[in-house]
Amino acid sequence: MPDQVPDGEVAGGEVGADVHEPGSGRSRLARAMTRPSRSQTIVAVLLALVGFAAVTQIRTTEEDSTYSGLRQQDLIDALNGLAGTTQRTQAEIDRLRSEREDLLSESTRREAALERTQREVDSLNVLAGLVPVTGPGVRVTITEETGVVKVSTFLDVIQELRSVGAEAIQVNGKVRLIASTSFEQGTGGLLIDGRLVESPYVVDAIGDASTLAGALVFSLGPARQVRLDGGTLSVDELTSLDIDTTRRAADPDEAEPDP
């Protein structure tokens, strides 16, 4: 009969020491946890993904359950309510956009009106002689030689300049001429707005130089009348001319701004 193998022994030798070593299973588990193999890592990742998917599905189901118990008519009413809210929101957006465009348009119109008003104020200030001005023009020199230049002759010179577009006129750098300026014959010269101006009379006028000059020297123009009075008239065309004399605005005695 073959020999019986005693307990704890195997044929051909003894069982390895790890079989009989107390706690050998726990040791293998500890090694697996601290030093997992590649297959164990893959299994762990797959389990984590499955768990995440399950949690996401549960949450989605819970969120979607808000409308799960509603009837078809209830769902239609809910959709209609959302559509109405959307329409009201769009209408409010359109209203605000329209108001914005109106404000921009109003601002543009206001700026244009202000610019136009400012141009008118500047033009009136020039015509009223309230501000210094500069620009192209002519310098007219009238010299008394054998006679006295009459007031009517001098006034013809001024009127001719105005009629062809002189925008600003001064005499001898002392008097700024405006629409209400007065002229009188004085002793030793002319009284312009009460101020004595003596010969030679130097008239500076701003405007188109060639037009202003042509208005004075044509055959029957003011230059001829100056010669008949015993004087001479010469015209210099200038590309830039400064008129520095100004007048103070008169305060009205009776008129008041209408509120």
Layout: helices, strands, pairs:
Elements: E1 9-10, E2 13-14, H1 17-20, H2 24-34, H3 38-64, H4 72-127, E3 133-144, H5 151-163, E4 168-171, E5 175-177, E6 183-186, E7 189-192, E8 195-197, E9 201-206, H6 209-217, H7 222-228, E10 231-243
Antiparallel strand pairs: 1-2, 3-9, 3-10, 4-5, 4-9, 6-7, 7-8
Summarize this, please?
With 259 residues, the chain is α+β, with helices and mostly antiparallel strands. It has helices at 17-20, 24-34, 38-64, 72-127, 151-163, 209-217, 222-228; strands spanning 9-10, 13-14, 133-144, 168-171, 175-177, 183-186, 189-192, 195-197, 201-206, 231-243.
Description of the structure:
- The chain is of the alpha+beta class and 259 residues long.
- The protein folds into 3 domains: 23-63; 75-127; 133-243, 2-Layer Sandwich (Alpha-Beta Plaits), CATH 3.30.70.1880.
- The protein is 49% helix and 20% strand.
- The strands form 3 sheets. A 5-stranded antiparallel β-sheet has the order 5-4-9-3-10, covered by helices on one side. A 3-stranded antiparallel β-sheet has the order 6-7-8, with no helix packed on it.
- Strand 4 and strand 5 form a beta hairpin.
- The chain is elongated, with a radius of gyration of 54 Å.
- The termini are far apart.
- InterPro entries: DUF881 (IPR010273).
- Residues 1-26 are annotated as: Disordered.
- Belongs to the UPF0749 family.
- Pfam families: DUF881.
